[in-house]
Amino acid sequence: MASLNKVFLMGNLTREPELRYTPSGSAVCEFGIAVNRRGQDRDEPCFVEIIVWEKQAEACGKFIQKGSSVFIEGRLQYDQWTDKEQKKRSRLRVTAERVQFLDRRDMGGDPAGMPPPPQQQSYRQRQVPQDGPEGGYAPRSQYRTQYQQDGGYQQSNGYQQPGGYQQPYNRPAAPQGVRGGLPPQVSNDPADLPPPMPPEDIAGIEDDIPF
Questions:
Q1: Residue 20 lies in a domain
Q2: Prediction pTM value
Q3: Any domain includes 147
Q4: Is residue 148 in some structural domain?
Q5: Mean pLDDT estimate for the chain
Q6: What is the pLDDT of residues 79-125, one digit of tens each?
Q7: Are 72 and 8 in contact (CB under 8 A)?
Q8: Which of 8, 11, 83, 197 suits a disulfide with 35, CB 3.0-4.6 Å?
Q9: What is the domain count for the chain?
């Protein structure tokens, strides 16, 4: 046989929540809420006892108070016990599985009813000193100029001696027969060509053939 035990309630606390701990160390919080059903002629309030366990119980004991508006999602629980006068007592209350705080002053800005998470600390990005007077360092051009004035040398296609004299760079001479380092070019001028070979006398050669 199918069954369902689910309760949704929204109302206001009728008393201050009572937070306590069991001998095993579990937190439990009890409070009551008033749920008002508006009819046509009059209001019909209903008072319901709520019990909450564990972390939600600690949150309820810290963030809500009498008059706070809450939303309850849970199940019905039927309790029986015997009082000091040896009389049997019973009651029906709601074991809350989820408690949502509806007042901002109670929930600290968190709609889920839990305390707001700690804010992350912001870290400023470390800035690298700039190459300039504002960063505490002189420009590179100033160091380069000062070094040259102190007698340093600068090598750029030549050797610069102290005193400002720069010795020119001597390019190695190209080998003979090569102009500017390139292979010799072939001339098409007839005057530069070698003289033709004289024709051979083949008449005497034919007379020496034995056949």
A1: yes
A2: 0.48
A3: no
A4: no
A5: 72
A6: 898 888 889 999 899 999 999 999 866 555 444 445 454 455 544 54
A7: yes
A8: 11
A9: 1
